[in-house]
Write a structure and sequence with these properties.
The chain has about 200 residues and is an alpha/beta fold. Helices cover about 45% and strands about 20% of the residues. The chain has one domain (about 30-204): Rossmann fold. Strands 3-2-1-4-5-6 form a six-stranded parallel β-sheet, sandwiched between helices.
Length: about 200
């Protein structure tokens, strides 16, 4: 099967009833937005999956509830984050490919979740998704796109990150943050709107 066929085929999950062991499913939250989504999924007691989080910001990692916490690019960023620069996020993931491969190995299916537009989620997600695909996993990306008020730079970076993801995953589910505001009652706090985004990620 060529890459184009693989990327464009429908997402189908079919397991043999006689299969002795359940599918190994891993969810990895990348960057701040991805880490928040993982925390929400853990809080709602999603079962049957292993949760990982990967970030260049060591402070954010310390407060995450995932069982596996992967610091990316410690030599490059000194644990201080990617500064909203996707190229730094990309380089940070490349710095730690061996560590990522170790923790992604054995998965039948990997969900990659991130908020696009910043540095780590935007830059590292395509690298991590590609590593999971190289290991033979079915890879699904569930990502949010920035609000319009966050500016053209973040929007442009998000589109570039999304295009890179589409090249290396089986399926992409995108959630534009602006559309969330049209699904909640007027006056809903912004934080609550973001929680709704995480609920969508959890149910995907």
């Amino acid at each position: 099967m060529d890459d184009d066929t693989r990327r464009n085929r429908p997402l189908q999950l079919a397991f043999d009833d006689a299969q002795a062991t359940p599918a190994n499913i891993k969810v990895i939250g990348i960057g701040g937005g991805g880490g928040n989504a993982v925390n929400r999924m853990i809080a709602t007691s999603v079962a049957g999956v292993e949760f990982l989080t990967a970030n260049t910001d060591c402070q954010a990692l310390r407060t995450n509830r995932a069982s596996v916490k992967l610091q990316l690019g410690s030599k490059l960023t000194k644990g201080l984050g990617a500064g909203s620069n996707p190229e730094v996020g990309r380089s940070a993931a490349l710095e730690d490919t061996d560590k990522l491969l170790e923790h992604l190995s054995g998965a039948d299916m990997v969900f990659v979740t991130a908020g696009l537009g910043g540095g780590t989620g935007t830059g590292a997600s395509p690298i991590i998704a590609n590593l999971a695909r190289e290991l033979g996993a079915l890879v699904v990306a569930v990502v949010t796109k920035p609000f319009d008020f966050e500016g053209r730079r973040r929007k442009s970076q998000a589109e570039e990150g999304l295009a890179a993801l589409r090249q290396v995953v089986d399926t992409v589910i995108t959630i534009p943050n602006d559309k969330l505001l049209h699904t909640v009652e007027k006056g809903t706090p912004l934080a609550e709107a973001f929680l709704m985004a995480d609920d969508i990620l959890r149910q995907a």
